[in-house]
Amino acid sequence: MGTSAQLEQTASTKIGSQGNSDALLQIVTFQVGAEVFALDILKVHEIIRFQRLTRVPNLPSYVEGVLNLRGKVIPVVGLRQRMGLERKEPTGTTKIIVASVKDNVLGFMVDSVSEVLRLRADTIEPAPRLSENRQRYISGVGKVNEQLLLLLDLDKLLSQGTQAEVSATKAAAV
Question: 90: domain CATH number?
Answer without folding.
Answer: 2.40.50.180
